[in-house]
From TrEMBL, chain A:
Keywords: Cell membrane, Membrane, Transmembrane, Transmembrane helix, Transport. One of its GO terms (molecular function) is transmembrane transporter activity. SUPFAM superfamilies: ABC transporter involved in vitamin B12 uptake, BtuC (SSF81345). GO terms for cellular component: plasma membrane. It comes from Gemmobacter lutimaris. The lineage of its organism: Bacteria, Pseudomonadati, Pseudomonadota, Alphaproteobacteria, Rhodobacterales. GO terms for biological process: siderophore-iron import into cell. It is found in: Cell membrane. The keyword Membrane applies. This is Iron ABC transporter permease. CDD domains: TM_ABC_iron-siderophores_like. It is a multi-pass membrane protein. The chain crosses the membrane at residues 69-89, 101-123, 129-152, 164-188, 208-230, 256-285, 323-344.
TrEMBL record, chain B:
GO terms for molecular function: ATP binding; ATP hydrolysis activity. InterPro entries: AAA+_ATPase, ABC_transporter-like_ATP-bd, ABC_transporter-like_CS, P-loop_NTPase. It comes from Gemmobacter lutimaris. This is Heme ABC transporter ATP-binding protein. CDD domains: ABC_Iron-Siderophores_B12_Hemin.
Length: 352, 260
């Protein structure tokens, strides 16, 4: 009826299941490579041949089971947690620049960790012995949770959570946590300063089976259950009111997304310190690759985030071997240019 | 049936709706008209449960203040004045958002069929953000039609609530949207829409609600409401309405020059 310009070519998006499969294979490959990389000089070839022959000798077994496997598992977990949290936050805030730090997890966890490092020595001996080496992760996790719950309370009135208020209150809370952290840094001695600097740069070096056991119950449910929020997050792309008209229980989606991020990102930051850019860059790359549908992005983020962090950890371990770089430096060096590239290639507006 | 009684809405300190009530029946198109700031959009947002109100609104017998959103969404779809989309979805993906919420079988060809209905054939794979304003508006309309694709649902008649659905459209597409709204009503659904164009109102509406200052200044058939004195009082400018017996009313503003 109306004269039409010929439709311009549309987007040919790859089959999401194939993308997922490819990401799974790539992550598996990286994981195997990572098992064969390390300061002990035990390469993939040796590992394979030892496996094929009469099994591993005692030394190789210890390296594999007590050092490399827990480190691999922690890398996969932390990377997946950060990337899925990033995807959840970006969907919730309708903003491709949001990351888990936006709900106060980063600021709160940082303050908790610094508190533990600087003032941990003042704890009664009984408590210190009970918590042991887990004091810093525990404090970081609690700090992240307290910050998130505080922000959530501030932003929620009459059962409705204002995402904008949460964002702005998060800036205020971040500044406050920064100031408190500054006071503690001022009080810290040289060794503590070194510890908290390295904590801020992130590391998987603390990987151990008990630590994995402690964070898995917080991370795994979020990874597995987050796709249940996918439909709600897709609808939220139209705005909260429109999503509600589409029949989405918007307040419930917001609540679960925020609590899920507090749990998963909080646990990840607690065990691995400050690792940046995974939460922002991974969902971005996935959107470029296969479109913004959260039904695919959420599971794919777990795969790509895990694979990316394992890859970054391999670089961190081999670049200055036998020493290792803090992994946060590697993710920032990889992530920041990618992020800039994404910003520069967008044609305009918020069409990310 | 849509029934409202003694509706008050206060936003901030300003009372926007100051006590109004009306009913609308399924099978009809109800147009809400009135000058800027008279409360048209606020009325629609109250009807869709978007703003808190005093008074009573019931849709198909459900008190909408107490009915969970998902249940309302099964028989009521809403088109906002403007919709900003946060991520690079394609046109078909936007339409599918309406489908996922609705009930019934998932027909993979439905998004393309609905896009064709709003005169966007083959637009499914195109990025939403690359479309023009009028095309984006029609994609959103297709999404709303996807959600309300049954004029009569198992939960009673379906309802379309449209806030200025033709604001960014050329005249041919304005007529297209009016035809779709009318078809929905003739098939047993109810349509409530905010309109600015008095001639489109005259053409398509079965009932007209004329708002002024947060109240209903007039209500009735187009022929009753679209009358010189009524319109001039509400809009505050010189307007002539003409009602030839065959075509129904048409409305002409008097020249700006003549007004001064």
């Amino acid at each position: 009826m109306v004269a039409l310009a010929p439709p311009s070519p549309g987007l040919a998006r790859p089959d999401p299941r194939r993308v997922t499969l490819l990401l799974a294979l790539a992550t598996l490959l990286l994981a195997l490579l990572s098992l064969g990389t390390g300061a002990a000089g035990l390469g993939p070839a040796e590992l394979l041949s030892a496996w094929a022959d009469e099994g591993l000798d005692r030394r190789a077994q210890v390296i594999l089971w007590d050092i490399r496997l827990p480190r691999l598992a922690l890398g996969l977990m932390v990377g997946a947690a950060l990337a899925v949290s990033g995807a959840l936050m970006q969907g919730l805030f309708r903003n491709p620049l949001a990351d888990p730090g936006i709900v106060g997890v980063g600021a709160g966890a940082g303050l908790g960790a610094v508190l533990a490092i600087v003032l941990g020595g003042l704890l009664p001996a009984g408590v210190a012995a009970f918590v042991g080496a887990h004091l810093v992760p525990l404090a970081a996790f609690l700090g992240g949770w307290v910050a998130t719950l505080l922000l959530y309370r501030v932003a929620t009135r009459g059962g409705r959570t204002s995402v904008a208020t949460m964002l702005l209150a998060g800036i205020a809370l971040g500044a406050l946590a920064g100031a408190l952290t500054g006071i503690l840094v001022y009080l810290a001695d040289d060794r503590q300063l070194r510890d908290l600097t390295f904590w801020g740069m992130g590391s998987l070096a603390g990987a151990s089976w008990p630590r994995i056991g402690a964070s898995l119950p917080l991370i795994l449910p979020v990874l597995v259950l987050s796709p249940l929020l996918a439909r709600g997050l897709n609808a939220l792309a139209l705005g909260e009111a429109q999503a509600a008209h589409l029949g989405i229980a918007v307040e419930r989606v917001k609540r679960f997304a925020i609590l899920g991020v507090a749990a998963a990102a909080g646990a990840a930051v607690a065990v691995a310190g400050g690792i940046g850019f995974v939460g922002i860059v991974v969902p971005h790359l996935l959107r470029l690759l296969g479109g913004p549908d959260h039904r695919h992005i959420l599971p794919q983020a777990a795969l790509l985030g895990g694979g990316l962090l394992v890859g970054a950890d391999m670089i961190a371990r081999s670049l200055v071997a036998p020493a290792e770089l803090p992994i946060g430096i590697v993710t920032a060096c990889l992530g920041a240019p990618v992020f800039l590239w994404i910003l520069l290639r967008r044609k305009g507006g918020m069409g990310l | 049936m849509l029934e409202t009684r003694d509706l008050h809405v206060t936003l901030g300190r300003r009372e926007i709706l100051r006590g109004l009530g009306f009913t609308a029946s399924p099978g009809t198109v109800t147009a809400i008209i009135g000058p800027n700031g008279s409360g048209k959009t606020t009325l629609l947002r109250a009807l869709t449960g978007e703003v808190p109100y005093r008074g009573r609104i019931s849709l198909n017998g459900h008190d909408i203040a107490r009915t969970p959103g998902p249940r309302l969404a099964a028989f009521r779809a809403v088109l906002a004045q403007e919709t900003h989309v946060a991520f690079p979805f394609t046109a078909a993906e936007i339409v599918r958002l309406g489908l996922e919420a609705g009930i019934g079988a998932h027909d993979p060809t439905l998004p393309e069929r609905l896009l064709a209905e709003v005169d966007l054939p083959g637009y499914g794979p195109r990025p939403y953000h690359d479309l023009s304003g009028g095309e984006q508006a029609r994609v959103q309309l297709a999404r709303v039609l996807a959600q309300a694709r049954q004029p009569v649902t198992p939960q009673g008649p379906g309802w379309l609530m449209l806030d200025e659905p033709v604001a960014s459209l050329d005249i041919a597409h304005q007529l297209l949207v009016m035809r779709l709204a009318q078809r929905f009503a003739r098939a047993g659904g109810g349509v409530i829409m905010v309109l600015h164009d008095l001639n489109l109102t005259a053409m398509v509406a079965d009932r007209v609600l004329l708002m002024a200052g947060g109240r209903l200044a007039a209500r009735g058939t187009p022929a009753e409401v679209l009358a010189d004195t009524v319109l001039q009082a509400a809009f505050g400018c010189a307007i002539r309405a003409n009602t030839p017996p065959r075509t129904g009313p048409w409305v002409l503003p008097q020249s700006v020059l003549a007004d001064s």
